[in-house]
Structure formats: C-alpha cells, structure tokens
Design a protein that fits this description.
By secondary structure, this protein is of the alpha/beta class. Helix content is 39%, strand content 21%. It has a 7-stranded mixed sheet with strand order 3-2-1-4-5-6-7, with helices on both faces. β4, α4 and β5 form a beta-alpha-beta unit. α1 packs across α6 and α5 packs across α6. The longest helix is centred in the C-terminal third of the chain and has 29 residues. The structure holds glycinamide ribonucleotide. Glycinamide ribonucleotide (GAR) binds next to α1, β5 and α6.
Amino acid sequence: MKNPIKVAVLVSGGGTNLQAIIDFCAEGKLESGKIVKVISNKEGAYALKRASDAEIPTAVVIKKGKTQAEFEKGLIEELESAGAQVIVLAGFMCILSKDFTDRYKDRIINVHPSLIPSFCGEGFYGLKVHEKALEYGVKVTGATVHFVNEVPDGGKIIMQKAVKIKDKDTPESLQKRVMQEAEWKILPASLELVCKMVIKGEI
Ligand code: GAR
C-alpha cells in the first residue's frame, strides 16, 4: 500500500494485543495501515518494550497530577506529532472525554474482553470482566472490538468472537483463552478493516 493509514496504539500494561498487531504487520497482513507510535499512560509498561523491540517510536503521557483536559492535550500532542489518523486502544485503562472522542469520531477502536453489551461499561476492565462473567455463570463469553464514543464501551460494534466457558475456568484461565481465541484475532482484523474503510472514504 502506497499511503497506509497512520496508526497510533494506546496501551497501559502488558501489551499482548499490541503484540498481536505487531505480528499481524510482520506477516504482511496489515495492508492498509502502519503503526507510527505507541503511547502509554504508564512508565515502564511492558508494552513499551514490545514497541521498541519492533522499532516503533514510543511516548509516555502520565495522567497523575493532571486534569483530564491536560492529560488529553498531552495525548493529542503525541498523536499529532506522529500524524496519527487511527487510534487503537489496546488495554488502555483510561476513560476518554467526549471532547476527545468527538475529535476522533470513527477513528478510535477499542478491544473489550466480553461480548458487549454484557460485562462492560465503567468498572469493567481486565480480569474483573472475567470474574463477573464466571460469577454470573454465563456459558459463553468472548471479545468485542468497537468504535469509541463518549459512552464507555458504548460505540458501534465492529467485530465479536465468542469463547466457550469451561467448568474448571478461573478468571485467569478464561482471560488467557479469550485473548488467544478472540482478542488477538479480531483486533488486528478490525484494524485492517477500519483502515481500509478510511482509505475508501466509507467512514
Ligand atoms: C485485554 O484483555 C483487553 O481486552 C483488556 O485489558 C487487557 C489488556 O491486555 N481491556 C479492557 O478491559 C478495556 N476495557 P494487554 O495489555 O495484554 O493487551
């Protein structure tokens, strides 16, 4: 692709979803996009090492001690300096304001570890999502990739994949399987789809 869409990935932790995107790129499957920067809100996040290993520029924007507007101004500066056109939230554990999501309407995607509208919204993140799914006793869970708007986990759904729950599952075993069977597949695939839609002027 001559002019791939410039993609920034926002992270907070281990970055296995970032790794899935990096691997997808290395396999030549991200045809319509290119990762131009990885931004973390946490210093020392392992995701930053994954980015450096893949020779992707990184930045850290800390939330602590800043207002939401100041924090987002810092993010926007980093996004603009990289020329980012599409933003991926890959385990990014910060809520973004309406001002921010409006600025990047249909340009931010997020991966969430459940089948939205189950086990989602404020307070549902990371391992907690799987604890709640097991507590409720659902037999099927999964992952969702969706556009990000001002409602936490409330934007239009792009892709979903179901994962069966096993009797012996713990939150940790379920988290691992949801990542392997669902998140790491649908996040890179959704990114390619969204970049292609941007190129075609469909969104
Ligand atoms: C992933 O399971 C992701 O779906 C979840 O956090 C984990 C991050 O892992 N995100 C949320 O819960 C957002 N609401 P990673 O850093 O290894 O990609």
